[in-house]
Amino acid sequence: MHKSMRGLMVGFLLLGAFPDIGAADRVVTDGAGRSVSVPAAVEHVICSGPGALRLLTYLQAEEKIVAVDDMEKQRPRFDARPYALANPQFKQAPIFGQFRGYDHPELILTLDPAPQVIFKTYPGMGHDPVELQQKTGIPVVILQYGELSGDRSELYRSLKVMGEVVGRQQRAEQVISFFEEKIADLQQRTDPVPYEKRPTCFVGGIAFKGPHGFQSTEPGYPPFSFVGAKNVAAEELPAGKMVRHSNVAKEKIVQWDPGVLFLDLSSLQMGEGAGALFELKTDPAYQTLNAVRAGRVYGLLPYNWYTRNFGSILANAYFIGKQLYPESFTDIDPEQTADEIYTFLVGKPVFEEMNRSFANLAFQPISLD
Asked: What is the model's pTM?
């Protein structure tokens, strides 16, 4: 092929001259308030950024994926992403870029079938979405990942926008209703418990862009919020202030002396000679805590793994509620409830498989001998 002709073809690709996706029949407003033209029927997509593929799986549209970022191709010893465990076929899909939104336009242009839409969460991370759309000619729909606690409007908006694009509007409403029903159930079980009868608690070892030790926590930890737990890490915050992640001083934890301790098992990634569990077993300061002495230390599923796992947030909340207020959760088997949640959201019960990665310590009292 003549060089000038080859250059012309590449130019058409970069301008977005894709015959099969060029006809845009409708306009959606994405999470950044942009009007984005998308085809009338969308059968092929890719999901860029933390959590984007999780949301698509919630909408039962995972069959539309034509490629994945390299996070889905990794085979780590630990994996706390129920959507990925339920869909091992993701590991066989082509790669379009690196995790956390570092997309490769050149790879995207080689995909066959070509994606008709790119969904992108955390638009400030990785490849700029506007530039990505310009380079590939493929519409990029930005989604704000959102929260499950507090204001859930961004999350629900993203589910609706994604559902609109891929033709899963009804499923999006079902997922939203599911979240609302579970949160309401947790609150109805725990609201009647008098505040003075609620034990103090603390969760340590929470992952934040990687594993951390026991001092890593969240004052606004969603499972605690859903069951009205007395989270000592939130006690000193000004009213109405939300703090997602915090590393608190060990001396503070000792001073608080929480009645019940919870351990986010993501910390096990740090290895046998480090991490939250190792610290609880070996640090003399933690040995003074009444919860450690009384055996009131419990393992929780990692919930912040390639951003927040909403299903694990709910599953953890049911387990925490049963430990703090057992009389309000007599009908709840936490492991069974977790699998009911995962089956609805990702299509399979994956608690046992996920728990094996974390030494079967989830939803169990942890021995510190």
From this structure: 0.91
Taking Cα atoms as reference points, which of 175, 201, 212 lies closest to residue 302?
A: 212
Residue 159 and residue 59 in contact, taking contact as beta carbons nearer than 8 Å: yes
Q: Which of 39, 168, 7, 8 is nearest to 114 (CA)?
A: 39
Among residues 359, 355, 343, which one has the least CA distance to residue 275? 359
Q: 317-344, pLDDT tens digit by residue?
A: 999 999 999 999 999 999 999 999 999 9
- With CA atoms as reference, report the closest residue to 222 among 249, 242, 198: 242
Phi-psi group of 51: left, alpha or beta (phi > 0 → left; psi -120 to 50 → alpha; rest → beta): left
CA nearest neighbour of 254 among 234, 224, 280, 236:
280
Q: What end-to-end distance do the CA atoms of the chain give, in Å?
A: 72
d(CA 303, CA 54): 13
Q: What residue ranges define each of the domains in the chain, with the CATH number in brackets?
A: 3-168 (3.40.50.1980), 190-357 (3.40.50.1980)
* 152: phi then psi, degrees, rounded to nearest 5: -95, 10
